[in-house]
Every structure is written in structure tokens, then in C-alpha cells.
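Q: I'm building a small set of examples for a reading group on sequence design. Run inverse folding on the following structure and report the sequence directly after it, with nothing in between.
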């Protein structure tokens, strides 16, 4: 009887341990799964915010460029076809130089009710009704409008202070909402109306959570994260159903083993107590082993949970650094707001083109530094790591570890700026921006792996000035777009940084001036302008060291203005000369039979190239343009010789060998016969 009671107690204990193990594994595992999904969701939202911000910054840039150059096009308003061609050319130039694939720039001419692209002109009604399914009669154009269909999104915004034009930026939907997650979808609420979402409540209940994601000029962008029920069920099955069978098998084996090792010997103990002393020791050893095994499993699950919490913390810090999150969200992890922390930034350059390998190397570096120095290491942008440390790091130790990583991971170069000062967590975003600038000095510290404020102070005079490596490339693009204001702002920022903030003098100032002069020289050579402004530039080059800082800046701006003016003249002459040559040929030869081959030979081009070039400049093909010009001239000739010419004679005077051909072409253009138009019956 006593033996049966003991056996029941062993069974109850085994069942209790099995249930406890099941709950521990399932709940901790599912909790880790939930944290992982939450982190993915946060990263997706951050990605969408960056994408939408970039698109709105993009349209502001294109508005600025169009606004600065639209006046050049408006001077052709008297001849609307030429105006259209110039505007289309302007749109094409901006698109080629500034707009990525999948995005197109259009202009809405409100007076003409036309939407102008780089290659064609669309009626306003067709654009709104056929492409975006919007009733143009009920559609009110505001400062900003949003249109959308299943494939693209259009942002319509006024062109500066102009009431004549609006800029339309058409963006492929997969570019506007930059994500590869299949279980997500996107909707836009514009002026109180959901585009592509008929019943909000139905979607909320059946497709998941709608996040009010961003507001811009009374327009809401919403990201719908659909619940993936199959994935959720798989997670429930993995963490709640799947462990049952292994746990049952394990603890059934444990129970049988206990009976074999513990219960049966215990019966013998009752019979012969002195023979079973050693068996008691074996039972205790077994129970201790079982306890250690359970403890080992608990440790593994705790580590997984801790890892998920760290990933969530890194995601929040990354958002704060990039200006996408609130610093208050970090107070949970840094409750002492005034605690002094050490910040730093690491730049990683790879000599390989494989982006996946590069990202893997960045991850490996971050994990190594985090485990070695017990600090927060957050990947910010590709090739950049920002670290936060509560304790001071010895410079030599950090430098040694970075050198070890460079030797271990082939094909990379690591450069670090570590601040000697301590900061508070509230300074995080501003210090990231400041440290990113300091990384620009890495080319001047080729022999160093880590620099700090002291190293920057010790820079000799030839390195103490600020000169970004990409300033020439940016200047070339802005000058090529005839954006004088943009290139002046670029150099004004450069002078402000060196004259006002750094207060350069002596050798430092001389080397800065030399860098500016060399950049101007290379820009002049790129545009092949040496023969046009050689005299001005040569005088500027010789006097640069004797000029005051203010006079040097003034003459730099004058040289830039002359460069833009010369580029503008060259571009204008090339287009105007060809256009004038085309029109002269037609004016001189419209009264006889002419062909495209003859026209191409006159220009010195092949017939195919001449035809494409003519259509690009004039907006229609060669034959249609010639017919239109002939009909126009026939009306002028008839008015000059009223009642003295027959229709047949009139046709011959403008180059038609057949009066029937003349009549048919006249009908196509004026929708009536020449006889009715002129009031003449004799053909």
C-alpha cells in the first residue's frame, strides 16, 4: 500500500515537471516570436516614413528647378508650339539628370487645360478621367492634391507663386511605398476620401491594423499590415502544439527510469534496508542531473528573450539617431536622463561589390565590439555604426580590436571617431550629425584608425580647412541645369564654414583658396570654356593670394556666374540654330514638291535622324508640318489676291500638284473645304 502511494507521488511529480517544462518552453518561445514580429513591424514603418519623406523632398527639388527655369521658356509664349517644345525639353533635361527610373515629371498648364510630359501633350480631362478615374468637372485643384490608382501615385503641387502651372510627379506605387512585404498594403486619404479603400471599418476588422502613418497638407498615408493568419497559426503550432509530443516522450522515459532506478530498489529497501544504500545515492544523482538539464533549457530561453529585447532597443535608438523617433522612448533604457555617456561613430569601407557580404561583415563587426566592450553598437546607414558606452573605453584597446577585425575580415577598412567628451542621451541625434562630419577627415588620417577632438585640434595648417570631396560633382550638375542659385548656395555654405566657423588664416587660408581655384579650373575644362573666360580666370588665379577673404568670395561668385552664362549661351545657340535652319528650308521651298530625303541632305543628317530631330523640336513629323505651313500660306496668298485666283491655281502656288490633295489636307486642318472657307465655288 505504501509502495503504491509512493508510485503515485512519483507520477504526480513527473506530470508537474512536464507541465512546467511545457509552459516554460512555449511561453518563452512565443514571447520571443512576438518581439521579433514587433521589431520587423517597426523597421517596416521606419522604411515607409523615409520613403515618403524622400518623395516629398523630391517634388520640392523639381519645383525649385522648374521655377528657376520656367521664365526662360515663357518668353516663347507667343508661339505656343515652340513654347511646348521648350517646356518638354526642360522637363526631359530635369528628368534625365535628376529623376530615377519609375518616376516621371509632368506639368499641368491650367490656362490651356493640358498636361505636358517630356514627349507628348495630354488633355487635362483625359489625364484625370482615363488615367486616374477622377471626374475633372468635380475635381478642385488645391495647393497640393494626391491622385492614385492601382499602379501609380501622382502628387500635384503649385509651381511656386505661379497660377498658370502645377507640377505633377507620377511615382510608381512600388517605389512610393518601398517595401517587399507581401502581407502589407497601402491606402491614401485625400480631402476626406479614401482612395482604393471603400469601407474602412470592414478593412480594420478583416485585414489587420491600420496605422495612421503620416500627414502632409491634409493628406493621410496609411499602411495596412495584414494579419498573416497562416504564419500566426504556424507560430502557435510551433510553440504550443509541437513541444507536447517530445515532452511527453521525455518525461514518460523519465518516469519509467525513476520507477526502474528509484521505485523498484525502494521496494527492496523495505525488505532489505542495508542492501539499498548505494541505490539511494544513484537516485539523488539522477535527480540532480534532471534539475541541471531543466536549468540549462531555462538559460537558453532566457538568452533568446534577452536578444529580442536588445534588438527592439537598437531599433528605437536607430530611429532617434535618424530623427524619426522621440528621445523619450529611450528613457525606459536610460532612466537617468543626466547620466554621462560616451558616443562615437565608425565608418566601414568595403572593397567588394557584393552588398550581402558587406552587410554581413558590418553585422559581425558590431557583434564583436558589443561583446568585447559591453556597449551599444547600432548600424545606422550602410557602412556606419554608432556606439554608446556607459563607461570610458581605453583608446589603445579599441584601436587594437579594430586592427584585429581588419586582419580577420578581409576587404574592409575601418575608421573611427571617438569623442573624449561625455554627453547625455538627449544629445544623441545632434551628436550623430556632428560626428558624421568628422568622419570626412578620414582621408587626412591615413595612418590612424581612431581620432578624437584632440587629433582634430592637432591637424597641421594644410588640413584645417573644410572642403567636401563631392563639391565639384554637385557644382557640375547644377551648372549643367543652369541652376545659378543652387551653385552659389553650395559655395556660400563652403565659405561660411571656413570663414565664419573655422576662421581660417595664414597657410590654411591659402590652401583653401587654392582648392577653390583648382575646382573652378576643372569645372571650366569640363564645359570646355577656357577660350571664353581665360582672361578673367587667369587674372583671378594670379591675384588669389593677395585678395581679401571677402573679395576672393566675390570674385569666385562672379566666375561662377560667367560660367553659367556661357553654358546657357552655348546650349541656346545649338538648339536655335538647328530650328532656324529647318524653318528656313520650308519657307524657301514650300512652293515646290519637296521630300524628307532632300530635307535631310540639306541638314547633313540621315533621313531617320532628321525626322526624329524635327519631331522632337517641332512636336509633329515633317510632312504634317509642311502641309500645315502650305495651307497657312495659301490663306495668306488668297487674301492678298482675292477673287483673282482659282482653287487649282492656289494649290499649285503652295507646292501641290493635285488640287484634290490640297482640298483633303485643307479639310483635315480647318474641318471644311477651301471653297466654303473662301466663299469660292470654282475649283
Amino acid at each position: 500500500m505504501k509502495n503504491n502511494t509512493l508510485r503515485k507521488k512519483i507520477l504526480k511529480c513527473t506530470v508537474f515537471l512536464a507541465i512546467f517544462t511545457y509552459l516554460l518552453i512555449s511561453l518563452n518561445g512565443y514571447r520571443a516570436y512576438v518581439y521579433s514580429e514587433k521589431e520587423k513591424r517597426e523597421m517596416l514603418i521606419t522604411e515607409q516614413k523615409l520613403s515618403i519623406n524622400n518623395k516629398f523632398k523630391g517634388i520640392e527639388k523639381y519645383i525649385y528647378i522648374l521655377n528657376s527655369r520656367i521664365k526662360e521658356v515663357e518668353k516663347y509664349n507667343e508661339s505656343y508650339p515652340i513654347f511646348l517644345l521648350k517646356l518638354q525639353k526642360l522637363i526631359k533635361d530635369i528628368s534625365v539628370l535628376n529623376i530615377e527610373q519609375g518616376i516621371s515629371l509632368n506639368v499641368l498648364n491650367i490656362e490651356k487645360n493640358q498636361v505636358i510630359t517630356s514627349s507628348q501633350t495630354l488633355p487635362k480631362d483625359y489625364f484625370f478621367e482615363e488615367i486616374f478615374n477622377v471626374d475633372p468637372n468635380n475635381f478642385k485643384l488645391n495647393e497640393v492634391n494626391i491622385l492614385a490608382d492601382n499602379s501609380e501615385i501622382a502628387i500635384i503641387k503649385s509651381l511656386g507663386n505661379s497660377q498658370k502651372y502645377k507640377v505633377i510627379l507620377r511615382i510608381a506605387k512600388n517605389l512610393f511605398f518601398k517595401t517587399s512585404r507581401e502581407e502589407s498594403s497601402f491606402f491614401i486619404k485625400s480631402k476626406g476620401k479614401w482612395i482604393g479603400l471603400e469601407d474602412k471599418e470592414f478593412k480594420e476588422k478583416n485585414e489587420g491594423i491600420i496605422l495612421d502613418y503620416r500627414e502632409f497638407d491634409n493628406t493621410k498615408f496609411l499602411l495596412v499590415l495584414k494579419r498573416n493568419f497562416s504564419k500566426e497559426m504556424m507560430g502557435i503550432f510551433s510553440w504550443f502544439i509541437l513541444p507536447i509530443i517530445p515532452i511527453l516522450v521525455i518525461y514518460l522515459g523519465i518516469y519509467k527510469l525513476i520507477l526502474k532506478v528509484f521505485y523498484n530498489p525502494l521496494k527492496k529497501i523495505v525488505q532489505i534496508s542495508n542492501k539499498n544504500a548505494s541505490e539511494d545515492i544513484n537516485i539523488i544523482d539522477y535527480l540532480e542531473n534532471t534539475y541541471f538539464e531543466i536549468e540549462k533549457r531555462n538559460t537558453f530561453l532566457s538568452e533568446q528573450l534577452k536578444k529580442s529585447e536588445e534588438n527592439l532597443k537598437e531599433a528605437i535608438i536607430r530611429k532617434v539617431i535618424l530623427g524619426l523617433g522621440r528621445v523619450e522612448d529611450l528613457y525606459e533604457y536610460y532612466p537617468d536622463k543626466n547620466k554621462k555617456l560616451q558616443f562615437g561613430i565608425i565608418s566601414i569601407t568595403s572593397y567588394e561589390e557584393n552588398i550581402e557580404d558587406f552587410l554581413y561583415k558590418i553585422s559581425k563587426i558590431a557583434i564583436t565590439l558589443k561583446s568585447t566592450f559591453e556597449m551599444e553598437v547600432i548600424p545606422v546607414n550602410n557602412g556606419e555604426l554608432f556606439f554608446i558606452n556607459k563607461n570610458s573605453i581605453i583608446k589603445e584597446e579599441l584601436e587594437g580590436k579594430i586592427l584585429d577585425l581588419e586582419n580577420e575580415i578581409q576587404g574592409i577598412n575601418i575608421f573611427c571617431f571617438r569623442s573624449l567628451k561625455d554627453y547625455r542621451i538627449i544629445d544623441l541625434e545632434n551628436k550623430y550629425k556632428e560626428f558624421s562630419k568628422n568622419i570626412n577627415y578620414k582621408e587626412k588620417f591615413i595612418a590612424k584608425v581612431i581620432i578624437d577632438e584632440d587629433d582634430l585640434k592637432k591637424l597641421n595648417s594644410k588640413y584645417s580647412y573644410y572642403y567636401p570631396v563631392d563639391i565639384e560633382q554637385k557644382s557640375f550638375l547644377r551648372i549643367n541645369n543652369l541652376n545659378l542659385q543652387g551653385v552659389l548656395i553650395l559655395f556660400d555654405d563652403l565659405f561660411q564654414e571656413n570663414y565664419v566657423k573655422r576662421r581660417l588664416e595664414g597657410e590654411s587660408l591659402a590652401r583653401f583658396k587654392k582648392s577653390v581655384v583648382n575646382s573652378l579650373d576643372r569645372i571650366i575644362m569640363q564645359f570646355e570654356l577656357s577660350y571664353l573666360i581665360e582672361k578673367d580666370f587667369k587674372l583671378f588665379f594670379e591675384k588669389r593670394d593677395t585678395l581679401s577673404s571677402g573679395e576672393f568670395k566675390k570674385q569666385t561668385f562672379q566666375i561662377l556666374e560667367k560660367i553659367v552664362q556661357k553654358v546657357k549661351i552655348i546650349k541656346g545657340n545649338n538648339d536655335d540654330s538647328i530650328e532656324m535652319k529647318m524653318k528656313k528650308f520650308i519657307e524657301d521651298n514650300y512652293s515646290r514638291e519637296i521630300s524628307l530625303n532632300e530635307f535631310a541632305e540639306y541638314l547633313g543628317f540621315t533621313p531617320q535622324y532628321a525626322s526624329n530631330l524635327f519631331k522632337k523640336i517641332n512636336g509633329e513629323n515633317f510632312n504634317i508640318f509642311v502641309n500645315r505651313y502650305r495651307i497657312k500660306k495659301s490663306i495668306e496668298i488668297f487674301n492678298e489676291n482675292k477673287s483673282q485666283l482659282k482653287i487649282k491655281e492656289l494649290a499649285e502656288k503652295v507646292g501641290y500638284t493635285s488640287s484634290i490633295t490640297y482640298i483633303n489636307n485643307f479639310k483635315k486642318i480647318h474641318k471644311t473645304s477651301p471653297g466654303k472657307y473662301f466663299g469660292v465655288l470654282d475649283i
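Confidence is low (pLDDT under 50) at residues 198-218, 274-278.
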